[in-house]
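Running this now, will post back.
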Amino acid sequence: MDYKKNASNVNTITRDLNALSEDTGNVYETVKIIGKRANQISAEMKSELEKKLQEFASFNDSLEEVFENREQIEISKYYEKLPKPTLIATQEYVDKKIFSRNPAKEKLLK
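Update: finished.
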């Protein structure tokens, strides 16, 4: 997933929770949906970062051979500048890119 192309802000902004929870009708359910998606995004970002940093892993246990790897620093800086997973998930929810299903509500409707 390309997180740089996401339209979410890098900084936190204030949101109206009542307007945000119009679809579900429940603020807590909305927060739960956004939280679950944020956890998924966080796991994706973490695994992607670990894959990229694994290329630079040193398998030497020598303390004297500590060196600075410029490419590794640039990759880390890139991920630090990305929007936080919570902000990405909130923007996806606002843009209606998140699909959520509640089996308990579906049972009540039947």
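The longest helix spans residues 27-54. More later if anyone needs it.
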